[in-house]
Amino acid sequence: MTQEYHVTSLVVHAAPGQVANVTEDINALAGADIHAVTDEGKFIITLEGATQSAILDNVEAINALSGVLSSSLVYHQVEPLEEKSEETP
Asked: Is 55 inside a domain boundary?
């Protein structure tokens, strides 16, 4: 089975009064990184994972967070991971 690397970017809109809570909750998700956030509650987030399922689980978790109003998938890329042979240093 070929291993893969997935990266996805999202724009997430949260209620302005919930920015701190949403930030904390997103930071608790494995593979999630917040790159920008505004006082109005807009977030730029990337998700990284080994499977599409892991990415979708995190998207669903973000959508279910208290204070999140919406999320929009902006980008998704999948790359195969090359397996190292015993000859590769």
From this structure: yes
Residue found under tokens 């006082």? 39
pLDDT (tens digit per residue) in 6-53: 999 999 999 999 999 999 999 999 999 999 999 999 999 999 999 999
12: Cβ–Cβ under 8 A, 6 or more apart, which residues? 22, 26, 42, 43, 45, 62, 68, 70, 71, 72
What does the DSSP assignment read for 37-63?
E-TTSEEEEEEEESSHHHHHHHHHHHH
In a domain, 18, yes or no: yes
Radius of gyration, alpha carbons of the chain: 15
User: What is the span of the domain harbouring residue 40?
Assistant: 12-78
